[in-house]
Amino acid sequence: MTTKLFGEPVRRREDARLITGKGRYLDDIGAGALAAAFVRSPHAHASITDVDVDAALDVEGLVAIYTYEDLTGPLAEPLPVLIPHPQLTAPRTGYPLANGEVNHVGEPVVMVVATDRYVAEDAAERIAVTYEELPVIVGVDAAREARACVHEEIPDNVAARHHQETGDVEPALAASPHTLSFTQYVERSASMPLEGKGVHARWDADDRSLRVHTSTQASTSVRAAIAAKLQLPLDQVEVVAPDVGGGFGVKIVHPWPEELLVPMAAIALGREVKWTEDRREHFISSAHERQQRQEVSVGFDDDGRITALDVHVWHDNGAYTPYGIIVPIVTATQLVGPYVIPVYRVVVESVYTNTVIVTPYRGAGRPQGCFAMERTMDRIADVLGLDRAVVRERNLIQPSQFPYDHHLTFQDGRPVIYDSGDYPALLGKLKALVGWDGIEALRDDADARGKLLGVGMALYVEGTGPGPYEGGHVQVLGSGKVLVSTGLTTQGQGHETSFAQIVASELGVPIEDVEVTTGDTRRFPYAVGTFASRAAVMSGNAIALAARGVREKALRIAADVLEADPGDLEISDGVVQVRGTPGASIPLRTVAVLSNPLRYAFDEAAKQATQFARAGSDDKPPVAEGDAPGLEHRDYYSPIRSTFASGAHAAVVEIDPQTWEIDVVNYAVVHDCGNVVNPMIVEGQVHGGVAQGVGGALYERMAYDADGQLQNASFMDFLMPYASEVPDIVIDHQQTPSPLNPLGIKGAGEAGVIPGSAALASAIEDAVGRRITSMPISPTELYDLMRSETAERTAASGRRTGVGA
Amino acid sequence: MNLDGSAVLHGSPDDVWRVLTDPAVLARTIPGCLALERVGEDSYRMDVSVGVGAVKGTYAGEVHLTDQQPPSSYVMHASGAGAPGQVRATVTIELAPDGDSATVLTYSADAVVGGPVAGVGQRMITGVAKRLTAQFFTAVDAELAGAGAAPVEPRPSADAVSQPRVEPPAAPQPQVFTGRAGVPAGTSGDLRTLALGAAGGGLLTLLGVLVGYRLGRRSE
Q1: A523: in domain
Q2: Residue A41, pLDDT above cutoff 60
Q3: Which of A99, A102, A395, A695 is the most exposed place for a label (fewest CB within 10 A)?
Q4: Into how many domains does chain A fold?
């Protein structure tokens, strides 16, 4: 059957368009628009004492210059704290344009609008802003020491102290046969989509309506924010996410200053205005993630079973907290992974620094949590002289224990209750896939070639598909075309394919007839957004429910025409037929025509639905009570809580003891995201995630100096892995369906990135015998570590050397 | 919108007063003034062309002086309207002696700007206004230095783009004073040259600044 496409590796339908230059990205829109450019702070922390625009006035083509003084009403207030939380006791957000103070390099101070971007940049360059520099806080340790403060009224730099515990951890630690305490660090990186942010706004002064295109992950909420901040009625604002060249989290933040200022200028000037972020702007004025200092204390027994875990994290949230404490919460709650932790306490102190804001980047706090947990497992194994896989195995939640309640509260405010999973099977598959038990032979072989070989593994559980809801709309047209829309946005995940597969399967139509629209508030005004690996879970299920609604209505109408029981009908290849009765059929497109009783025949098909063409009971209205014209249905999916996907990664590295170059020679992934809509797309998501995981482990960092200047704010200096650095990845699937949603699916978007740093740190440590306590790690840092007198040697290396000697 | 400032002019308050209230001088010193027409006691109509960057264009407005306390203070009321917007401004001007032969002029302008021109941003409007004001004072100072000497006759010359309107000879008014604004005020170039040669500058041009604008509409 051609239409049962759910679960098939259907080739991505959008790719032909996207890879042949037919994509329509933000900068492809508004060719004649005025261009905006920004004067951004060159200082990490300073007061603004003067803005002198005089020299800019001579620039031919300059149209307007805006500073904080031009902002009025809600626009002059600080940007919203998007996700308030009781433990976020000192939230701070910036203004769309700096109001007398800047708190990181790159904060917007002046917006210039001109006839084109070149002119706008020229004018911006001539604007002289006078600053009085203030003390600068860079990095989590400086924030913690608090010798200076980022925000004057917050002397300890602590925005929030997130705290959860499942029991009395101190006595549990004291009673443990063994305990370990250690401190480790994770550096900053960033989403770094190849297409930066961008905003285009057009104001129609005649009907007073605003249309905004923005490269966002949350068009409906951008719309609401623009309406609120510019004091426009919601129905006069439309927001559309065009093709978006990657998001990875950074574009879930909103409203970005530019998303308010560009529409403001479009309205003030009565002209189309556009801003397209350049790469340096993206580095210094979008968002970063990841930096944490982690202090871990763990208690365990002689078998390596954890008895208690106490974690204190210092999380660098940058200059402001627009996204609340979502990343700290995710770290705190996802840290426990697939393990039984009898007593767990976690405190995450979220601290201000004079650096770019920290908001979710693919993984969103999970890579750090995974790093804490998995490195703890490695240390327990090392102390006890046990196989790292064995220690993990002994701590796993067993399949019989589902649903498993960790007694924690997740980022959606709901309990952390794992819905389903089979972690022992995951681990078993991973060991087989990477050849875990044969690693000593590989090590000897590498040794013979003068290389150091090591293997590491890391497991994770990922809460995906948080609510509150998403919606879907499915409509069959008289042409047979099936229009599908959902409000959340697409950044390259292949929604045009996977959502179409769902509808084709549910409705029984050829996928070629299905057209999917996402992220356009004109088509679907209610949505939450694309984040937390939720699109397939949330919109996928909502669209499935909408398609089921259409199917039910189609069968009802067709049953009437075919004089059959709806229960005897089936839809296949776009034709409704009586099961087992060839010839008794009606095309779905005809059902669509008949669903809308007509007076006027505007085309050949419509004739069938006109009042003299249709048979019908004289006793019933043409549109039945409670029914509506048209073959369409809108439905919503709102889950009781998140669904928890899981996975396990293993990496084999070979290290050259001359250069300390780290080569990832094998990378194995076992992945369980429940039922799979399209395995090819899921594997693509895993590949992309692993690439970012490898980048975060070995290459990417934000090199801030002590003055808060980002020294590697370009692709010349920021090392993003190329295809040559991304290892070949072997993938095995496991499907443990979610009992929480109709399709039984779990999210897959972020998974690939989560265990990268943990698995690679473990592998490098295994190879070199020195404790790895900070990631990412470069060859230079590894070299320094190997030459350091004080570097901790692992017990395993001692044992190995002892055995060898 | 408020615009406050001061300037030191090289002449006694009496000299400054005389210059600042002499329509012929004003016509020469206001940046971009094409023509200044006396329409009543202390009331003038004028055409101003402004050419600073995006704030560019020609406009017509009216000016009226009140509360005159020679030689120490007066209030100027200006208003105008043009396609790109409208403006209304009240400017208080005070003169105080500074030593033997100089005067400190202090001005305080309160302007209400409307229409599309209001959308270009306050810094831009005040930036242009400040620049034109500086040009005006430079020109006024040049008048003071170069002597009220050569009384300037209205010159219907080639560079006076705006011709005086033909009025019945019987009427004593209006008098028309032609400006030097062959080129719009404030166009790129040497400021001093502009001030001395082509344009004048001044508070009155606040109007021109605010209203005369084209906002890059050339492409429309």
Answers
A1: yes
A2: yes
A3: A99
A4: 3
A421 lies in the same domain as A540: no
- Please report whether residue B195 resides in a domain: no
For residues A585 and A647, membership in a common domain is answered with no
Q: Which CATH number do you get for residue A781?
A: 3.30.365.10
Closest residue to A69, CB basis, from B53, B116, B122: B122
CB-CB neighbors (< 8 A) of A97 in chain B: none
Tell me the pTM. Answer: 0.90
Contacts of B31 (CB under 8 A, 6+ apart): B48, B50, B132, B135, B136, B139, B181, B185, B186, B194, B195, B199, B200, B201, B202, B205, B208
Report strand pairing: A209-214 vs A292-300.
unpaired
A779-788, B44-53, B96-105: range with lowest mean pLDDT: B44-53
- Using a CB-CB distance cutoff of 8 angstroms, which residues of chain B are in contact with residue A267? 119
Residues A449 and A512 in one domain: no
Can you give the residue range of the structural domain that contains B98? 2-145
Instruction: Return the residue of B nearest to A56 by Cα.
Output: B53
* A691 and A785 assigned to the same domain: yes
Instruction: Give the tens place of pLDDT for each residue, B89-129.
Output: 899 999 999 988 899 999 998 888 777 777 888 888 888 88
Asked, for residue A5, whether it belongs to a domain, the answer is: no
Please check whether residue A53 touches B, CB under 8 A: yes
- Whether residue A78 is found in the same domain as residue A110: yes
- Say whether B124 and A110 touch across the interface (CB within 8 A): no
More confident residue, A665 or B205: A665
Query: Quick one: pLDDT at residue A528?
Result: 95
* Domain of residue A532, residue span: 467-637
CB of A110 within 8 Å of a chain B CB? The answer is yes
CATH number for the domain spanning B37: value is: 3.30.530.20
Is A164 a residue whose pLDDT tops 80? yes
Of A63, A69, A267, the CB nearest to B216: A63
Among A637, A654, A670, identify where a domain stops.
A637
Sheet holding A158-165, edge to edge: A158-165, A344-352, A306-318, A292-300, A178-186, A774-775
pLDDT tens digits along A268-291 = 999 999 999 999 999 999 999 999
CB contact under 8 A, A57 and B128: yes
Alpha-carbon radius of gyration of chain A: 28
On whether residue A794 sits in a domain, the answer given is: yes
CA–chain centroid gap for A594, Å, is: 43
- The mean-pLDDT minimum among A389-393, A613-617, A663-667, A765-769 falls in A613-617
Does residue B43 have a pLDDT over 80? yes
3-state secondary structure A721-754: CCCCCCCCEEEEECCCCCCCCCCCECCCCCHHHC
Share of chain A above pLDDT 90, in %: 93
Average pLDDT, chain A: 95
**A115 close to B (CB below 8 A):** yes
Query: Is B53 close to A59, i.e. CB distance below 8 A?
Result: yes
CA dist., res. B107 & res. B94, Å (int):
6
- Per residue in A531-578, pLDDT (tens digit) is 999 999 999 999 999 999 999 999 999 999 999 999 999 999 999 999
- The answer to whether residue B31 sits within a structural domain is yes
Which residue of A lies nearest to B129 if distances are taken between CA atoms? A54
* Closest listed residue to residue A342, CA positions, set A374, A298, A312: A298
DSSP letter at A210?
Answer: E
Specify which of A255-264, B67-76, B150-159 reaches the highest per-range mean pLDDT. A255-264
Domain match, A433 and A554 both? no
Q: How far is B188 from chain A (nearest CA, A)?
A: 6
Q: Tokens 């933000």 sit at which residue?
A: A26
Question: Does the CB of A603 have a partner CB in chain B at under 8 Å?
Answer: no
Under an 8 A CB cutoff, do B215 and A61 touch? no
Contacts of A215 (CB under 8 A, 6+ apart): A25, A26, A195, A196, A197, A198, A199, A241, A242, A244, A245, A247, A251
Q: Cβ of B120 and A65 within 8 Å?
A: yes
Among the partner-chain residues B55, B122, B216, the one whose CB lies closest to the CB of A61 is: B216
